[in-house]
Amino acid sequence: MTPVPAAFHWLSLLALLVAAAFASATVGRFHIPLADVWQILGRWLTGALSPETMEERILVNVRLPRILLAAIVGAGLALCGAALQALFRNPLVSPRVLGLSSGAALGGALTLLVGGGAVMLFAATFASALAALVLVAAISHVAGRTILTIVLAGIVIDALFSAMISLTQYVADPETSLPAIVFWLMGSFSSSSWEKVARHGPIVLLAIAVLYRLRFRIAVLSMGEEEARSFGVNVQVSRWLVFTVISVIVGGCVAVSGVIGWVGLVVPHAARLLVGEGHRRFHGTAALLGAAFLVAVDTLARTVTSAELPLGILTAVIGAPVFIYLLCTRRTRGGPVR
Amino acid sequence: MIALENAGLRRGDRWIFRHVGFDLPEGEVLAILGRNGRGKTTLLRTLLGSLPLTEGARSVPPVVGYVPQSQNGGEEHRCLDIVTMGRAGRLGLFGLPGRADEAAALAALATVGAEHFAERLFGRLSGGERQIVLLARALATEAKVLVLDEPAASLDLANQDLLLGVLMRLREARSHTIVFTTHHPQHGLFLADRALMMHASDEVRYGRAAEVMTDAELARLYGVPFARHTAGPGRPDVVSPIFGAAIP
Amino acid sequence: MAPRFRLPAALLLLALAPPPLLADPVAFKDVTGAEVTLPGPAKRIVTLPQPAAATVIAVDGTSEHLVGMNPGSRKAFESGLLKKMFPDAASIESGIVAEGGNGWMPNVEAIAALKPDLVIQWGGRGDELVAPLRNAGIPVALMVGGGNGGTEELARENIRLVAHILGKQDKAEALFKWRDEVIDGIKATLAAHPGAVKPKILHLRSSKGKFTATGEKSYQNFFITLVGGENVGAGLGVQAEVNAEQIAAWNPDLIMLTAHEADAGRETILEDEVLSQTAAAKAGRVYKTPNGGYVWDSASHESPFTWMWLANLAHPDLFHFDLRAEVKSGFERLYNYTPSKEEIDAVLKLDLNAAAAGYGQFARK
After folding, report:
1. Is C in contact with B (3 or more beta carbon pairs below 8 Å)?
2. What b/e string do you get for A116-152 counting C-beta neighbours within 10 Å, with b at 16 or more?
């Protein structure tokens, strides 16, 4: 492996993200000529624009917050997937597989059931994501940390939390809380707004920054408990901190866009294929790729048909073949699938 | 430097080991021998502090360089990154390794003669090469005590020779106090100053390697008779098990 | 290497943005009580609530101001008579909801591309449904109720809202007068016969695969009670799934099947092991609800038809509304359209209800 220079590597990834974001800004069911997009973006970026015309509003108030949220959620899920794969020392896990996403969704559904506000929504998604993660970690600790037990524990917890979500929907008032729960669970970026960016963006971005900063410690934890302890690392404190930060991110992502699968599973593998697992590039690459990927997928979702395609369908259709490819070529790239 | 005093560990009402004691002087090498299930790995884990002792006392420095039987994971890391992880304890929760840490990691790789692995992917190395990188990682912690859990258990003869050679150079430098478990009496005779033979959960022999690893003791430990040959001046004796001798 | 975002700048801009200036405003309150201001009567309307499309056409007497509607509205539109009465409406865009075309989450860009003066949306179902439109600067007016929930008051408020939007308050007043007359007539007849036995009536919002009964909080409860019936589903809230045993225990005298499920006829009851033994099935009093410009078992501008139809069936000895004449004159008033005999047959579902008890009264004379 002859690594490309760091500056070139990061600039390429940033360019990819910016290109995806810009492409996303230029397309949509509502036609805005490319020249107008440039012009409006230019004025907006320099602060000389308060959106008034339909073009300006669609671009600035509808597309831009949507792109921003998709980028944040994509980066968050990919980074969490990378961290979870390291922590569980298992390439098959992701926030979705481990039941964290369902956990967060349950917290959100319960909040909507009792009519809680935004703060409670966030606290509940975070707390229930953490609960799911702790349950999976506890089960796999007791049952032995093999690929099989971890994935099975994840499936069980995911099923349990999904059943509780169904129960929540069953007891919800069909006129008020049920539609609200259904829309929230369905999850999409179609209700994106600057208000939503302001409500969820800062805390999720902060958590992403913290998790990114923990990347070396996460790599160390991936070496195994005994090993990490022998380096003089406090394994319990590190692991709980990482779990907590991941739960904040997943909780925030689910609160923004509902449960989105595959991003946290496939993107870390793609990043690993590109740059290996070294802490210098792996986590940042996963985050930037995840952001660009979800921006691109969401753009497809809202432009392919007039009725928006559910995001989960597209991430699965793209993610599954990519994952199968990565699995099948993993041996030839040197790392055995254990 | 590293010692156990009348140490015992009980699980439920069964003693895994009991009345274990040794005090290994600085710079010496201890081999722990015993059949499967005699508690060698468990004993190592109490040394590392992962398991608490039921009785007795341990005296071990706060940081110990540990080399596992094999490393699960890390295949997609560069070897230099793997070794740099040994610096984690010095870096704090949010710390990232800097130039000094990489220099230390490279120095550790140099100590075991493996600088040329630095840029290679860990997953691309042979089993013996991996163990050497893990040894370098243990050295990178700058611990004075190294603990190795059957470091050569899954290696072919060429890789065993490679690893034992590196360990021998460390022993000759007398820079580290080393504890390792092994299934090969020959590894003990080749490397160790002292040996701890775990005959039963409450019967442990400890002493100078050459003194306690007699043919009779080895035969008693493994239930297999041993033959002994001399390997030449300055080299330890060669022992080999005589398989089938116990079958009537 | 976290990317830098322009969040603070964007928020500041948003806060400083002045509301657009409008001349000659038309102001009214929507059903949630929110003020809506338009430059003038809306000429391009998009409706997201399913019944709203038919209401707009009925109040307006034309489909030309409706430029977008829910896919669910289109389905109702095509299964009923609206398609025949307003053939031009077939080209109205219905790809305006997000998430695979289910529900009411607006696809803002698709809606914006229609350049609507106003979008009608459900209120009280979470701000998520409204905020995207508001952020795009598209005026929104909210209806309340719908589904099977809601009251006669809300039904009228929703009609009144549409009338305000179109500037046709007189049409709304005429519709309300009609409703009042029918209600007063039914009440007067029932008051004159205080000894009349109340038939036990079950309305099934779904009878295909599962049985969903509507309860005391439903709009159906309002008209079952109005025509002197007893809603056996009272206690279920708006609606709930029930099993055949529960229906057998209620043993209703009359079962009303929703018009929403066009393909689920009387056989769903009559061929069911258990339900075929209920009083309603044995007496042949299982009816498929008619479907005019909109399904008759949900609250709409056509509700008085439902009341008269059900009154005749619930109390055959007390009520003798001439439904064929009512539909003919009613459709002329509502839609400026004179339905043919065949079309009236189709509205009343004479084919599906041919064998039902007492349905001969609706046949051509």
Report:
1. no
2. beeebbbebbbebbbbbbebbbebbeeeebebebbbe
